[in-house]
Specification:
Blueprint: H1 14-34, H2 52-74
Helix pairs in contact: 1-2
């Protein structure tokens, strides 16, 4: 048996995975902010679905999270 076995390397560095997890966390936070606002009674319309948090803040948070994850993927790892 030869001792020429190569050490298994990850595709990204530790810093890339940390930034990637932060980006995924921000995306999850955006979807949590987007949830809710419905009415328990289907015959009653609730205006809560059109508030600032669900219309502006949550989608912006999700897009920022996608931007962070793209940055983590494109950032070259230190070798």
């Amino acid at each position: 048996m030869k001792n020429n076995e190569q050490k298994q390397e990850f595709l990204f560095g530790k810093n890339n995975y940390t930034i990637l997890l932060i980006g995924i966390g921000v995306i999850v936070l955006g979807f949590i902010l987007m949830s809710g606002g419905g009415s328990d009674d289907p015959a009653v319309f609730s205006e809560d679905i059109f508030n600032f948090r669900r219309i502006r803040l949550a989608p912006t948070t999700v897009l920022i999270g996608f931007g962070i994850t793209i940055y983590a993927i494109l950032k070259s790892p230190k070798k």
